[in-house]
Structure formats: C-alpha cells, structure tokens
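Reminder to self: tokens first, then the designed residues, so the page reads top to bottom the way the pipeline ran.
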C-alpha cells in the first residue's frame, strides 16, 4: 500500500485569482489563459461534467435497450419509438459522443500541464481518461485518439484503430500507477478536489486495477493467439498487483438541493429541488419483462431487490411490453433504491460490478481465486447498494436455477446478475456485455424492425460536419453486423 499524505484545502474558483498573481507577466486577470488553470482547479469540474453523460444519456440508453425501462403508455404516446424500432441515425444518442469527447479534453489538459509537481492529479486524469475512452470505443469502434485533444493544433483528428486504442488505455493505467508510486514531497497533495476518493491514492490504485480487468475482459471472446497471449501477460500483472475495488466508486462534488444545477445528475432526471416528480419521472416505467423477471414469473424466484429498483403496485412490479400502446394501470416507476436523495453520489463503478468482473476473470482462468465467491459477493454488494437487506436467502433460492445462480452456464449467470446490479445505475454496461456475450438474452420490443440490437452506434452528425475528411463512412446496416474489434 502507498503511504499517502492528506491535507485539507478549499476548492478554488477562478474568481479568487488576484491581480498580483499576474503582474509579472503583464496580463489581465480577467483574461485567464487555459494553460494557466492548474490541475487542482480542473480536476473536480472535469470529473463532475463527464459523469453526467454516464449517469443520464448512457444509462438511459442501456436501460431501454436491456428491457429495464419503458414508458407510461397509458398517459404518453410514442414512448421510446426510436429505441424500440431501432430507428438509428446520426443524431441517435449523439450526446454520448458529443458529451464525452470535450469532457475528456479537460483530463488531457491536466495530463499536459507543464509542471512536474502534479503527478497525483495527472495519474487520476489518466485513469479517468481511460475509463471513459473505453466507452467511446465500445459504442463506436474506431475513434480519434492519438490526434484527439490537440485543440487548435489539430481540429480534424484522424481516426485510430480501436484495438490499438484499447492497448493504449492499459498503458495509460500503468503510467498512472507509476505516477502514484513516483510522487514525492514536491508533488501537490490531492484532497478535496478529488471528488471521488478524497485524495486516497490506495483507492485510486484499486479502481485502476479493476478497470484494467474490465478493459481486458472485453477482449476475452477473441480467440486469436496474439490477443490471448496479450491477455495472459496483462492479467498476470493484474494478479501480481492484487488490489481491487472494495467500495462503490462515485463522484460527489457537494451535490445539494440548494439549486437545480447542484442536484446529482441521475436524481435530477426524476426529482426537482423540492422532490416533486419531473416529467421524466412521470414517464419512465418498468417493462413487462423486468417485472416478470423480478416478480418470479420467469424463473420462480422473487427478487427482494424489486421494491428498491421499482415502486410496487399492488405488491408487485407492473410494466408494459416494450412496443405495445397499453399496459397495466398503474405501472411501476423507478424505485427508492435508485432515487436515493438530493445528495447521492453519481455512480462511476459499483462494488457489485467490480465483483462480477473478478468472477468472470477467475471463471475464464485469467485470475486465480474462487469465482463463485466473487459472484455471490457481487450479488451481496448489489443488495447493499439498493438497501434491499440480506442477500443470503436469495442466493440460496437461486443456487440451482440455471442462468441465475451458480449452476448451469456460469458466464450467463454472471452476466444476468450484472444486468440486475447495473439496472438504473450504469445500464450501458449490460448492453455492452450483451453485445459481447449474448447474455442475458432479453427480448426486443414488439415494434423492432431488426432481428437483433445494434452492435454499436453511428457516428454523430457533429463529426460529419466538423471532421468529414476523417470520419468513417459507416452505414446503418453495418452496425447490426459489425461491432468494435472485440465483437468481430
């Protein structure tokens, strides 16, 4: 473990700079240059801005695609039409690309900052850059990377091979770990500006090593010798490091109900500062499929998490079939285990997700340990996160249920429980896992115009406008048969 010094500092705003700070360079304090903004000032805003994309846009898409969320068809018409029919174009969820790329630029500014005294900040920025860049590859394939974030030096970056980007992300994490260990007394200590782990380097190291597992496992379905040799070598490093996420990783810069802009991003989708429901809260409802699954209709096991994930109507979850225009009345809304309060963290990676990653890596022989133990620990962590009580009875009840407990296909069970654990929290993971493994095999909407979900998204209109010479000419038909490199 790294010994890490803590200090308490106040978060600064740009308005706190005085004229004296700039007298020597004869510049107005009202015209602050981007390069003069220190990593200490950049870090909290960078983390808080990017997690909004994950908590809202990405999470929403995953929840709809993976049969968690539908619409209140009894009171709204045209619920999720594009998602259900798979009517995808260059504007479909373009907020993912258009939100992540600029936010990643802020992390790059921290990494590029011209000082050797910010190793800890730069390490955190490298890890966060890798975390969210992985999602861009997972959702789009080839992306700008080596020429991205050069700012005015290059506003039309070339696209990099997605497999090579993945390799670079692992290198980033290794570099970040080295920076943490190489930090010395001259380096600025991180404290309050780290809005995820409060400046605790050991927690960052655990998170980084767990993120490596996720990046490596995405590629584990590939059978070519080069990939498998690479995975074996990299997992050996993960095993040797031996530290993994042991708590929920969530961002909280000081969320509160003082103003709408200060509310947690997920919470504010469903609540206002006075806790009254928003229009989205009135619209989002459980689907019939997730209702049947959690109520025990699908597999005879009632899931105690159901009343935390959704509101109960008449003692059960009630939802409409995706694509149908009528449903039970009333239908179940998003529950209190997800809409927790106006100070709740914005989730980055839950402990449950980390445990399921360990279970899969062990099951596939990349890491040593007991896969079943990690699997059941993931279920327990999900119950704890949602406030659903003890998981022991549920784990016992599902023990012999194929695809749900530790029997039958273990990978199917891991993916199914991970789907349940990311429901409403980070559901984009379950769609990516479904693309990768085929589990859980949830149905399409009745109005779907294709026999399967897309493997990725189309590049957004913004790229065709601003970077037309480089953006690949990707056709709609291709995204249903060609995915990121780890799918092909």
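Designed residues (488 positions):
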């Amino acid at each position: 473990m790294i010994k890490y010094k803590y200090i308490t500092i106040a978060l600064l705003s740009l308005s706190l700079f005085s004229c004296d700070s700039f007298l020597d360079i004869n510049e107005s304090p009202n015209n602050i240059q981007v390069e003069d903004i220190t990593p200490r000032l950049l870090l909290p805003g960078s983390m808080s801005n990017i997690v909004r994309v994950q908590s809202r846009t990405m999470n929403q898409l995953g929840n709809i695609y993976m049969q968690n969320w539908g619409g209140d068809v009894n009171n709204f018409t045209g619920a999720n039409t594009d998602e259900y029919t798979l009517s995808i174009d260059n504007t479909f969820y373009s907020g993912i690309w258009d939100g992540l790329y600029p936010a990643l630029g802020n992390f790059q500014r921290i990494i590029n900052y011209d000082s050797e005294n910010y190793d800890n900040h730069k390490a955190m920025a490298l890890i966060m850059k890798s975390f969210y860049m992985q999602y861009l590859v997972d959702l789009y394939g080839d992306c700008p990377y080596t020429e991205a974030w050069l700012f005015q030096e290059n506003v039309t970056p070339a696209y990099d091979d997605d497999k090579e980007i993945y390799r670079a992300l692992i290198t980033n994490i290794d570099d970040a770990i080295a920076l943490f260990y190489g930090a010395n007394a001259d380096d600025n200590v991180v404290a309050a500006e780290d809005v995820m782990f409060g400046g605790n380097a050991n927690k960052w190291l655990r998170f980084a090593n767990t993120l490596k597992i996720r990046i490596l496992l995405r590629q584990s379905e590939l059978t070519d010798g080069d990939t498998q040799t690479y995975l074996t070598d990299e997992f050996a490093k993960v095993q040797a490091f031996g530290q993994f996420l042991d708590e929920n990783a969530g961002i909280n810069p000081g969320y509160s109900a003082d103003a709408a802009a200060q509310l947690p991003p997920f919470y504010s989708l469903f609540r206002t500062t006075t806790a009254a429901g928003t229009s989205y809260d009135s619209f989002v409802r459980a689907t019939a499929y997730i209702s049947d699954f959690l109520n025990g209709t699908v597999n005879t096991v009632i899931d105690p998490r159901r009343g935390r994930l959704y509101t109960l109507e008449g003692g059960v979850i009630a939802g409409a079939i995706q694509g149908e225009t009528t449903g039970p009345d009333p239908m179940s809304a998003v529950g209190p285990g997800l809409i927790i309060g106006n100070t709740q963290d914005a989730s980055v990676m839950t402990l449950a997700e980390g445990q399921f990653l360990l279970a899969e890596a062990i099951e596939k022989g990349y890491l040593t340990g007991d896969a079943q133990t990690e699997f059941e620990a993931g279920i327990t962590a999900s119950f704890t996160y949602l406030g659903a009580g003890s998981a022991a009875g549920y784990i016992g009840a599902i023990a012999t249920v194929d695809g749900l407990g530790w029997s039958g296909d273990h990978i199917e069970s891991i993916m199914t429980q991970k789907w349940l654990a990311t429901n409403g929290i980070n559901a984009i993971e379950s769609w990516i896992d479904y693309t990768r493994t085929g589990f859980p095999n949830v149905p399409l909407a009745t109005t779907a115009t294709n026999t399967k979900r897309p493997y990725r998204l189309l590049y957004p209109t913004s790229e065709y406008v601003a970077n037309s010479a480089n953006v690949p000419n990707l056709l709609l038909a291709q995204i249903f048969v060609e995915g990121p490199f780890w799918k092909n």
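The two ends are 39 Å apart (CA to CA).
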